[in-house]
Amino acid sequence: IKYISQEDVKWGSWSIVRATIALMNLALNDKDNQYFHLISGQDWPIINSQEIYDFFEGKSNIYMERYLADGIRKSH
């Protein structure tokens, strides 16, 4: 496990992007990494980590999902 703490991350600020880019650069330095999952502290996977691993193992596809936020209300 590796972590970085060079950014003082504030919710909703540009610091989140800077921290994400720094983390991706660190991860890309390890050629053994084959894919990445970017999730936040509010994301909850609906299957266990082994099922996620099994799904992506041996695949070279790029998966990306997006959802429209129209009508979605967030607190604060």
Number of separate helices: 2
- Looking at the structure, what is the overall shape? globular
- Residues in β-strands, percent: under 5%
- Structural class call reads mainly alpha
Number of strands: 0
CA radius of gyration is 15 Å
- Termini separation: 33 Å
Mean pLDDT: 81
What is the helical fraction, as a range of percent? 25-40%
- Please describe the biggest sheet, giving its number of strands, its sense, and whether it closes into a barrel: none
Listing every helix as H and every strand as E from the N terminus to the C terminus, the arrangement reads HH
Low-confidence stretches: none
Short descriptors:
76 residues; mainly alpha; globular
State the gist of this model.
This protein is an all-alpha fold and 76 residues long. It has helices at 14-28, 49-56. The protein starts with 13 loop residues before the first helix and ends in a 20-residue tail after the last helix.
What's the arrangement of secondary structure elements?
Layout: H1 14-28, H2 49-56
Question: Would you kindly provide a written description of the structure presented here, covering whatever features stand out?
Answer:
The protein is 30% helix and 0% strand. The model has no long low-confidence stretch (mean pLDDT 81). The protein starts with 13 loop residues before the first helix and ends in a 20-residue tail after the last helix. The protein contains two helices and no strands. The chain is mainly α.
